[in-house]
Amino acid sequence: MRSYGQYCALAKALDVVGDRWTLLIVRELALRGGSRYTDLRDGLPGIATNMLADRLREMEEAGIVRREAAPPPVATTLFHLTERGEELAPALYALGRWGAALMGERADGDEFRSHWLQYPLQHLFTDAAPDEPPVVIELRTGDQPMVVEVGGGAVRVHPGAAEDPDTVVTGDPEVVIGLLKGRFDLRAARRRGLRLDGDENGLRRLQPQG
């Protein structure tokens, strides 16, 4: 592990988590919980197999990641964040909040995974009408649908299909994200290929904070 050689808390932290891919591995484990090596590789498009193995080994040595054998019939190794690794969550939230302003047009070649929406929706969005009955929104974008439950002032997100959604939003990731962020309105989103089925008011319950 390379070191900045500085007696500074930030430099010491970056000695451990500042290498390429490390914080994104933390992101995957924070979102997914215990993950197989193949799950991590799928959630980290572009990473070389040997790089992922090296980073996981370094993170284990640093006490950020632990591995365990999954019980039968799975019989595979699962990677988890340690308690020390989970303490990185506030740093991820702060970086995600700062990076939200950079989410403009999707560049050619930019990969996307639907579960990456979980963090921003739960931490950067709010329920615009907490006193009204809860609503369920299904976002169909990327590699799998995501269920967004909005109610009581909270926003909860998990992968999967909703049993009886109030609103279903289907479209390319940059269009869905642009609509949710308010970068353009529903009419402009529809011109870009977005489809909304169900109650439009359900989508209005989900509002960016601030």
Q: Largest sheet, if any? A: 5 strands, mixed
CATH architecture of the largest domain: 2-Layer Sandwich
Structural class: alpha+beta
In one word, what is the shape? globular
Q: What does this protein structure show overall?
A:
This protein starts with 8 loop residues before the first helix and ends with a strand. The mean pLDDT is 93. It folds into two domains: 94 residues, Arc Repressor Mutant, subunit A (Orthogonal Bundle), CATH 1.10.10; 95 residues, Nonspecific Lipid-transfer Protein, Chain A, CATH 3.30.1050. It is globular, with a radius of gyration of 19 Å. The longest helix is centred in the N-terminal third of the chain and has 13 residues. It contains ten helices and nine strands. Strand 5 and strand 6 form a beta hairpin. The chain has a five-stranded mixed β-sheet. The chain has a two-stranded antiparallel ribbon with strand order 1-2. A two-stranded antiparallel sheet has the order 3-9. With 210 residues, it is an alpha+beta fold.
State the main characteristics.
single chain, 210 residues, alpha+beta, Arc Repressor Mutant, subunit A, Nonspecific Lipid-transfer Protein, Chain A, 2 domains, five-stranded mixed beta sheet, two-stranded antiparallel sheet, 10 helices, 9 strands, 21% strand, globular
Question: What does this entry show, briefly?
Answer:
The chain has 210 residues and is α+β, with helices and mostly antiparallel strands. The protein has two domains: 9-102, Arc Repressor Mutant, subunit A, CATH 1.10.10.10; 114-208, Nonspecific Lipid-transfer Protein, Chain A. It is built from ten helices and nine strands.
